[in-house]
């Protein structure tokens, strides 16, 4: 059976009236601020761990290795369990928080979940900026992680529900766009704060996370709630009025009735977590696990939150490393724009497959370049030609992620789940994402020290696996109303055996 044996995804007989209104655009932009807190943290943590003053205060053993860099294996000079804990603790906290966020999101709505996440994130940022010891630093990171967990659980759902189905992909990619902007801003902030005399610039970098946190807190107070969420909480009149408002038309009966049917089904499900295990929800459960797993096993976080550390390992000076990280952050933003333009035109599958293959190629290239220069000893000087080649390959790798697995890893799970399991399934999606972000953060420095340049071949292998997974198992979902998504599973060559009742046959030959 070929992976191409899936439905086209160009609609399923529905053509809801309405348009992309200004209020929806504004709401989508404000909600996407939730991505800023995630992106800023990814960018800022890698930068401050490359600042000597920060390392000297909190991680003196790493600082001593840096001082003796000329006689130290480049692959191992950042290998420290406490330094790893600083980076990875956030993602473990986000994993746990995502399960609590599921209840808040379902019971009280997406808006409150975004507000609460932003508020906790601000507190964590203040603690980090004023940290006097490692314990204070780690507690702040844990609070940041709780904020990220809530935002990552609620924002993609909000964007998918509020957007007209024809523009759902482009608007949902706004979440990833804000993540990339957050990374870029963090890299630029790190570059300048590293120059502050007295070595206290890292406090501005870490404390600055309160700004995107404040943006999502204030923004969540003004965005409208989604009709899906209002219905889920039992207020059909208000939900219909909201749907008319955000669609810019009174002719919303067909879309509202579809949402109402989904909401009625959702209220009948008393235990959404148990329902996730039902046979008909098998494809949704599989996607909620494997899409975020593969997204993190691209190796992107090795590049993004360890970029300055990675560039320093390759022989760049501290400032040059921060500048190179800022360049990759800029590429990340620009390439995400490609996804916004292309996702509702070219489709999810095309971007998934092209991006996966491009990442595979350039992970291999990075491994070859680093291996041929440093070998296994890790002791060598890197010339300008090699430095340019490594940065170029990293930029091409980042660009592929930014228009494929980056945004689609959040978009596709948020649009495929039925309303009755949507919050629970999204929590699985976020939890798996954060689990493997935590795992990568926890083991990267140790793996770099142990298997050296082979680390990039390791991630390249996952590039091949994820591309095959998309080809065979992920159907096209562009142009399909979110409450009509069941059709793509019924028409899929493999998943139809799970979602179709024994006495039914798919209406489409596949």
Give an overview of the whole structure.
By secondary structure, the chain is mainly α. The protein has helices at residues 22-48, 52-58, 60-67, 81-108, 110-129, 134-162, 168-193, 201-207, 210-220, 227-232, 236-247, 253-268, 272-275, 282-296, 300-304, 307-313, 318-342, 348-374, 384-402, 405-416, 419-451, 454-473, 486-490, 496-499. It folds into two domains: 22-69 and 84-225 and 269-275 and 283-479, Up-down Bundle (Growth Hormone, Chain: A), CATH 1.20.1250.20; 226-268. Helix 5 (110-129) packs antiparallel against helix 9 (210-220), helix 6 runs antiparallel to helix 7 and helix 7 crosses helix 20. The longest helix has 33 residues, at 419-451. The termini are close together. Residues 1-12 and 505-510 have low confidence and may be disordered.
Topology record:
Layout: H1 22-48, H2 52-58, H3 60-67, H4 81-108, H5 110-129, H6 134-162, H7 168-193, H8 201-207, H9 210-220, H10 227-232, H11 236-247, H12 253-268, H13 272-275, H14 282-296, H15 300-304, H16 307-313, H17 318-342, H18 348-374, H19 384-402, H20 405-416, H21 419-451, H22 454-473, H23 486-490, H24 496-499
Helix pairs in contact: 1-6, 1-7, 1-9, 2-3, 4-5, 4-6, 4-21, 5-6, 5-8, 5-9, 6-7, 6-20, 6-21, 7-8, 7-17, 7-20, 14-20, 14-21, 16-17, 17-19, 18-19, 18-22
Transmembrane segments: 20-40, 83-105, 112-131, 137-159, 171-194, 200-223, 285-309, 321-343, 350-374, 386-412, 451-474
Subcellular location: Membrane
Main location: membrane
């Amino acid at each position: 059976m070929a992976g191409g044996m899936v439905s086209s995804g160009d609609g399923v007989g529905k053509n809801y009236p309405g348009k992309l209104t200004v209020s929806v655009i504004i709401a989508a932009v404000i909600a996407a601020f939730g991505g800023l807190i995630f992106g800023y943290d990814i960018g800022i943590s890698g930068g401050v761990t490359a600042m000597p003053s920060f390392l000297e205060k909190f991680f003196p053993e790493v600082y001593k290795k840096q001082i003796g860099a000329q006689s130290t294996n480049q692959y191992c000079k950042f290998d420290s369990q406490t330094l790893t804990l600083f980076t990875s603790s956030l993602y473990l906290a986000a994993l746990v928080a995502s399960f609590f966020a599921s209840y808040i999101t379902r019971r009280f709505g997406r808006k409150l979940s975004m507000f609460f996440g932003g508020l906790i994130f601000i507190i964590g940022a203040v603690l980090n900026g004023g940290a006097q010891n490692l314990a204070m630093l780690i507690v702040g990171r844990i609070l940041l992680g709780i904020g990220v967990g809530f935002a990552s659980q609620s924002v993609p759902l909000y964007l998918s529900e509020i957007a007209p189905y024809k523009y759902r992909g482009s608007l949902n990619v706004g979440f990833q766009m804000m993540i990339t902007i957050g990374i870029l801003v963090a890299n630029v902030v790190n570059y300048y704060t590293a120059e502050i005399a007295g070595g206290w610039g890292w406090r501005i970098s870490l404390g600055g996370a309160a700004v995107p946190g404040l943006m999502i807190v204030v923004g969540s107070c003004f965005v409208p709630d989604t009709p899906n969420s209002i219905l889920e909480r039992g207020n059909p009149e208000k939900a219909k009025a909201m749907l008319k408002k955000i669609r810019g038309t009174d002719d919303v009966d067909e879309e509202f009735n579809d949402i109402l049917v989904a909401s009625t089904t959702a209220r009948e499900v008393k235990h959404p977590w148990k329902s996730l295990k039902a046979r008909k929800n098998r494809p949704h459960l599989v996607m909620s696990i494997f899409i975020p797993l593969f997204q993190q096993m691209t190796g992107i976080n090795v590049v993004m939150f360890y970029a300055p550390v990675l560039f320093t390992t390759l022989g760049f000076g501290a400032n040059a490393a921060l500048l190179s990280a800022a360049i990759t952050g800029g590429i990340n933003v620009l390439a995400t724009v490609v996804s916004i333009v292309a996702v509702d035109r070219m489709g999810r599958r095309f971007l998934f497959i092209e991006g996966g293959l491009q990442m595979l190629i350039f992970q291999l290239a990075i491994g070859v370049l680093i291996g041929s220069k440093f070998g296994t000893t890790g002791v060598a000087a890197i010339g300008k030609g090699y430095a340019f080649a490594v940065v170029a390959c990293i930029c091409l790798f980042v660009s592929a992620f930014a228009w494929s697995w980056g945004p689609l890893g959040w978009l596709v799970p948020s649009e495929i789940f039925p309303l009755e399991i949507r919050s629970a399934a999204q929590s699985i999606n976020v939890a798996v994402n954060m689990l493997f972000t935590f795992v990568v953060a926890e083991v990267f420095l140790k793996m770099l020290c142990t298997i050296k340049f082979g680390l990039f071949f390791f991630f390249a292998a996952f590039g091949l696996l994820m591309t095959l997974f998309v080809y065979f198992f992920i159907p096209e979902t562009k142009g399909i109303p979110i409450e009509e998504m069941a059709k793509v599973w019924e028409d899929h060559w493999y998943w139809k055996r799970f979602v179709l009742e024994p006495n039914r046959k798919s209406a489409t030959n596949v």
